[in-house]
User: Fold these one by one.
Assistant:
Number 1:
Amino acid sequence: MSTKYPALTRSLLSASLALSIALSSAVPTYAATSTTTATSAATTAASSEAKLFLKEKFGITFTTSTITKGQFIQAVADALKLEQPEELPAFTDLTETSPYYAAAAALHKQGILTSTTVNAEQKLTAASALYIAVKAAGLQELAHTYPQAKITAGLKKLNIPASSLGTAAAQELAAAVDTGLLPASQYNAIKGKGLTPQLAETLIVQILSFKGEYKHYIGNINDSTIYAQLHDAFKTSNIIQALELQTIVDTALKNNLVTGYNLKDARFDANFTPSLSLNYGHSDLLHVIQLIGLLRSEGIDAKVQLEPKTSAYIFMKEWGEPPTKDTENYKVVQIENGNYITYAKEFDIAFEFNNAADKARFQPIILQYAKKDKADQPGLIYGSWFQPLYYSSTKLDEYEVITNNKITGSGYYYAQSFSLNDQSKNIVEGFRKLDPAVNINSYTFWVDKPFHNYLNGEGL
């Protein structure tokens, strides 16, 4: 359900004039213009990214000319997924009939709101929003260690005299500057101004970042360190062991309810903006190293996250003997009928592209350079599969719709088994027979045709 938050008309922030003044007179004018343009473009891109993320993840959008305190605290509570506490504060100006009561109570419980007077209908200033953000980000204790020298230095960047504020307020603004909770691009939005949509969105995303609830990624395709980061992420992941879930899904494998499943750890989920992201599954790190290089050579940049997973499937006894020696990346367990359950260390590479056009370009690149159609096929990157697996939670042309049957346990781990849509009902019912209390979330998503063909038993 989408939540709307009224807002001021958006305007782009220009780069600080101090930048050009500080430049040496020997530097040509065009250098300052170039820097200013780049700064403005980066600010606009970051703002657009925050706006889209909040809209798609939480239904948070600011749509009218004024942001009230109630609307901002509602947005903060929604983003942090805070619920109304059992013990309710006695607000002096807010009753339980108010649409903002639950959010205000939740923030009060967390110490983000410290007064019993809310002023929910009052237009919110940028500075007041920042006080809320400091507490919501967990920076209050740090702020209140600030001596006068650090306060003065921090507020100087905002062009706000320390003498105009109380001690606690001055400390919190200064700490917001020093910690980066308030990005430099937003310094001019604070002094004596109302809360703009751009600043509101920026602060909420910054709060999520400080709480570890924003996007998770090891780098970008164009980063010079991305290959090393991929190696480190892969080497430090292991075969996932989740006994609670495996008892259910291994039994489902034995009973031929599913042909395979994945185990994943939610702590590594990328949490990217859905419309710009997709996941690519594989088991070979060299393949992904070459894939990153391939995308880079095609002029595509994207955020990159390695999400560890363990794939489990049946190894049939008629295929011969499986490897007898388990490794850190592979192991087999023989089951009652003589077959084996194979557990293999794999991963999903989550990409968040800069735009929808680059996301759409991904499939033609894969089909040309990373999709095998015959053995020993030349002109492909290393380790290409006959049925590559890549998928999106939002619609893409020339993709097929299938179902994810996802089981979550009591901790961070979850199991998922992909199926054709008309098979999902039987799978879900089968899981429930194995464990009536199991938590199942079944939903559709978009997958490449070769993998859909594989699920449909069509081979290539």
Number 2:
Amino acid sequence: MLLERIYDEDLAQASYLIGCQATGQALVVDPRRDVQVYLDLAAHHGMEITAVTETHIHADFLSGTRELAAATGATAYVSGEGGADWQYGFEAERLRDGDTIMLGNITVTARHTPGHTPEHLSYLVTDGAFTDEPGYYLTGDFVFSGDVGRPDLLDEAAGFQDTRFAGAKQLFASLKAAFLTLPDHVQVFPGHGAGSACGKALGALPSTTVGYERKFAWWGKYLENDDEQGFIDELLEGQPDAHAYFARMKRQNKQGPALLGERPAPRAVTAEELAAGLAEGTLALVDTRPVDEVHRGTVPGALSIPSLGKAATHIAWAYDPEADDAGLVILAADAETATAYDDHFVRVGVDALVGFVPTLEGLPTVVPPVIPSAELDAFLADHQDAVLLDVRNRSEHTAGHVPGSRQLSAGKILFHPDDLPAPGTVPLVTYCQSGLRNSVAANALRRAGHQVVELDGSYAAWSAWAARQNALQHQS
């Protein structure tokens, strides 16, 4: 048996290829939408992808199940559990609790594990060449290394109300019935790692075991003592902010993401074409330089995506494909680099990349307003209607913030206009922890028409400055 983990550091998301080496058949679980990585991996091992499935209707990335099935002719499988409201809207075989997918000697058994979502499936894998007992468990967003999937995302991101409590109860029951009943040696392969917003305490380990989680996970003592309420209380306390684009992912994944098919390489765009598109509003530049370079000058209305490593996350914060029809032109050295960004973008349903420019030469530029910590108080005194905005997560704001600031995370800021003054009416002074997330948020807000001043160095710089000021006062 072959079991390969394919991990996307950007979205902290894991997919898996399971293959029977005797027959050359392979199954992919929870594929992302840029599917070439799975085709290459199967070819490397001399296997044919004959089946594709997913654990649930994802909220944090756009599923590649339809895409990979279309590219390979494989059979697509999705959950048939969860009731009428949780049925997929595209053609695929439905799996229910106990149903199996056969890959030569390998049996993959679906287990209904609701809690994170009502339709959620996990997959027990039995290598029939060695045993008739399962040895591996692909748990999706059910059980992570050190944590379990949060049951509040439907409330936080998808517009539901108070489903978190029923979900938490379901999760408790699923742990009892479909996890702790397994032998301790069963290896667990979760759908996410540290950094994912799908839980609050995810470990960075790529796998764990039933026995290890039973003994050491935070939730183990509650299950051992049959303390459902204690489990629910700790589970729901302190969950991180959910990104606003999660709601779109839920809708699109349930309906079935649009098929990409063969994707042409991004083309070179001339400065003249981009300048004309910027003036007409039909094109927008994605500035991929580091934050300090952007602060020295960028194209008016440019989006700031300072890192390829988080390009999917940040473009989903800064660009809403359901409300914005501008084509994107990326600042990239060549088509290969632009394609790498496009791969990240399509993972969150941003299919708008037109081409690339290698330089800003020949384009109009502006210098974004940035204010040092030492000048913040004077600026706010002169602009008493200004809004000081902390774009970090709730937990970061609670742990410490600039006095008088309002919290609205960068992952929500573009999608919550009612929580902000009308564009162009009052200045916004924005900050994050170090400045990177702030650059993404601030430039998205500028493109939406807001007057934005960035706090130079963000909270890290301000807190260091404030500490120096306090020390000077104590000395005097």
Number 3:
Amino acid sequence: MMNINLAKIFSLLLILIWTQERLLALKAKLLATHVLYRHGDRTPSGTFATNTVQESFWPNGYGQLTKLGQMQSIKLGSYVRKRYQNLLNSTYIANEIYIRSTDTDRTLMSAYCNLLSLYPTLEINESLTMEMPSMLVPWQPIPVHTLPRSIDHVS
């Protein structure tokens, strides 16, 4: 069983490598992409009754994005910016990108942090630390679309 799975993975890897080389040989051009990602680091979504660390321990409560999660999302935006620099415009253009999030604080905050570095208005240093500058201005607001939880079939 294990050898069959490894063989399938190896075959798939060879196909992907061949496909990428074939596309390069054909001088194919990437026209569009979908990027799916999960929120960054978050606080626990709950705990058991006898745990000494309860929700009051976390400044924003259970299930919220942490500072580390914010930094992860900002760094992801920088990575996507570099990876797709030939596809993305240097500034936000409404009809070129659509951002969708589930309607929870942590996913919305992750999307906004990601967009902060996807369309930066200031140079974002690679050695970003947990401490953000007190104000990153000018900031370009970019819409993040959601649906109410009651009709959102993604979450």
